[in-house]
Write a structure and sequence with these properties.
Cytochrome p450, 183 residues, two-stranded antiparallel sheet, binds protoporphyrin IX containing FE, two-stranded antiparallel ribbon
Length: 183
């Protein structure tokens, strides 16, 4: 579970798929960190830069979820709170918690049921196509369903979690969840 959370944080950070916040406008003259910003100036945050600041992340270009785990395997919240993808301040994203929950449920539901792998001889490229949102370059993957035996093992080892997923999966209309509705 901490690794899954660390993985999602690393996706937020590395992909920075919302590279800039929505443009806002200053309502007064203000001085910020020694910089004077006049009233009526358009301002927004370069989230991509925050998430790739080598002073914070070191090897910022590497996709390494482990960076957000402590030696004992817990989430290093002092570090993950520095990942910026939902903006900051009073105009921060209203759907922050909902989006995080949705991503967690979506990802774990897929991983519970599917085996996902690279296709032979394809070199994966983590660089993005720039735009209002950052998009992945085209790629192919091979997806197969987990065998029923493996699936049962997963189910037994995480009953509580599966139950939560089951309830939430109805919300997201994942009909495959019918098979686990008695959990
Ligand atoms: C991973 C998914 C999402 C990301 C990365 C994201 C990111 C952002 C960002 C960067 C902003 C601009 C913040 C700023 O200007 O400082 C924003 C604003 C906003 N987001 Fe999201 N968002 C996501 C999902 C959602 C969802 C699911 C909802 C609604 C259920 C939502 C509702 C809003 C609203 C209403 C605003 C405007 C807030 C305001 O101007 O006061 N977002 N979002």
């Amino acid at each position: 579970m901490p690794y899954t959370e660390a993985f999602i944080y690393e996706v937020f950070r590395h992909a920075s798929y919302v590279p800039f916040t929505i443009p806002h406008c200053t309502t007064d003259n203000i001085t910020l960190n020694g910089y004077f910003i006049p009233k009526d100036t358009c301002v927004f945050i370069n989230q991509y830069q925050v998430n790739h600041d080598i002073d914070i992340w070191g090897d910022a270009e590497a996709f390494r979820p482990e960076r957000s785990l402590t030696l004992s395997g817990h989430l290093n919240k002092n570090l993950t709170e520095k990942v910026m993808i939902f903006g900051i301040g009073v105009r921060r994203c209203l759907g922050d918690s909902f989006a995080r929950l949705e991503m967690f449920v979506f990802l774990t539901t897929l991983l519970h049921r599917l085996h996902i792998e690279n296709v032979p001889e394809q070199r994966l490229d983590l660089s993005s196509t720039f735009g209002l949102t950052m998009k992945p370059k085209p790629f192919r993957i091979k997806i197969s369903t987990l065998s029923y035996d493996i699936y049962n093992t997963v189910k037994l080892s995480s009953l509580c979690h599966v139950t939560e997923l089951c309830q939430l999966s109805y919300f997201f209309n994942i009909t495959e969840c019918n098979r686990i509705k008695n959990c």
